[in-house]
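Moderator note: this is an archived Q&A kept for reference. The question asked for a predicted structure of one protein chain; the sequence and the answer are reproduced below.
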Amino acid sequence: MTENPILPNYKILLAEDDHDMRRFLAKALETAGFQVSSFDNGLSAYNKLREEPYELLLTDIVMPEMDGIELARRATELDPDIKVMFITGFAAVALNPDNNAPKQAKILSKPFHLKDLVGEVQKLLAA
């Protein structure tokens, strides 16, 4: 795998409960040169975040055991510098100010093209 010369080898934590979606997202991000650790629920992802640092949390919102909003809130408590991107079919949920989602979180609404995801991730990490 060739490294992307523009970006360092960023580590992304992916939390998505849909198996096929998780596989597609991980493959697209790995192809773009990112290191990806993926989990099918928020609690497992959070436990991984407690073990090692990541530059980006890419999470679905609606998941079992711990939803993406709670995961993002806890992730930013652990590491205030972690970037957060929600991938969701429920953008209104993420945008609701009462949910305590991290204010600087980016939202990518499903459906989206994988190239759009990669582009948004690159922009967020380069910011």
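Archived answer notes: The helical segments are 19-31, 42-51, 68-78, 91-95, 114-126.
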